[in-house]
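Hey L., structure's done. Input below.
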Amino acid sequence: MTKPQIVWLRRDLRMRDQPALFSAAQAGPVVPVYVLDDERTGDHAYGGASRWWLHHSLEDLSKSFGRHNSRIILRRGDSAEELAAIAKELGAGAIHANRHYEPWWRKAQGDLKDALDGTECELVLHDGNYLLPAGTATTGSGDPYKIYTPFMKATKALFPPRDELPAPETISSPDTWPASDDLADWDLLPTRPDWSGGFSDHWSVGEDAAHERLDWWDGTVTEYDDGRNLPSADKTSQLSPHLHWGEISPVSIWHAFKDKRSDGWATYEKELIWRDYAQNVICQFPAYAKESYRDQFDAMAWRDPESDDEAKADLKAWQKGQTGYPIVDAGMRQLWHIGWMHNRVRMIAASFLIKHLLIDWRYGERWFWDTLVDADYGSNGANWQWVAGTGVDSNMFPRIMAPLSQSEKFDAAGYIREWVPELRDLSDSAIHDPEDDKRGDYPAKRIGHKEARERALDAYRQMKDG
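Output:
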């Protein structure tokens, strides 16, 4: 009998277009393994929102494997050690895995390869999570791109991506199964208190849900170019958590829409390429979600919530959606309630923390990491550094978004009414920047826009002059 083939699952929790699973199923009996490895991830261990999604995604995928009389082996600990131990126990012929580019996963892949050296088991890495493998699109001299636009053009020039793979028709099982944890024992779901009611009401988790969302998106993507900026209408796909957890692959999405000729699809395709770009960046700069690329910003006179009580109060107000700026607060409350925020509002809320409150972008990155169901190490770091002006490719710091005019420009009145019910009775013209006597229980502004803008520009000038 052929030797068992281990499939190392991480953020690729699907059956369709899953290269590691497809290859393993052709080679022999399949043993899917998921290792909850909080040690290697360090300060980027999964936050509360991610753990909620992970629980439900594993639960859903377990049912899919169950329909093939298979199962997922769950282990908690060091990925390389657990996988090497399972391989030895089973006498496995190979461990199949889709490449991941987060620094801890790259190290784990290297450590696992070393652990298997001298055994009859090999680590076989596949490309399954992105449109193209990181490092494919390079400059004429063979160097990786640092700037998005030339990266995007070079990527498109290399299209089409690989062919989409079907789900395995049959999955053979080994003669014996290794021991497995019980998913419930991992305590991934919140209990004291259970704050996830809004998550459960809003999201359907799993591969089938991802493809159902894709089917809906097929009829809406043409409206995306303009609609993506309108939070009240919300013409976004909301596929981002499904993409992040690998419940659907970007290759599947690309092939589903490749023949469309609309500005909406052209814009969305560029955002799929942005996901690839973020991986390209963290391959070059592994600490990108923790360290400013433009390190001169470390000398900026950031207000420090650790030592400044007023800055601490401002950070807390931002986190709770109590800044006094309706569009910002609507976004932050949406984030807390469903673990997701409209993409235009993400930029407004991030800019507000950095430039209006003058708080280091890393506080925002950490909050989003804990509260987003689509929290992605590469994309989260790239997005925050773009807004902050600290990144390898970023907006200029002096370009300060005006949240009040942004709210009116993008017609956010309905969005504000949904998430800031204190203001729901105000007119469309009044709700973006309510007069003090119209606010009721809604808080006053933490700082005026003009005052915040001048403070931020002054801090920037002092940094540049220093």
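Residues 374 and 385 are 17 Å apart (CA to CA). The domain at 1-129 is CATH 3.40.50.620 (Rossmann fold).

-- N.
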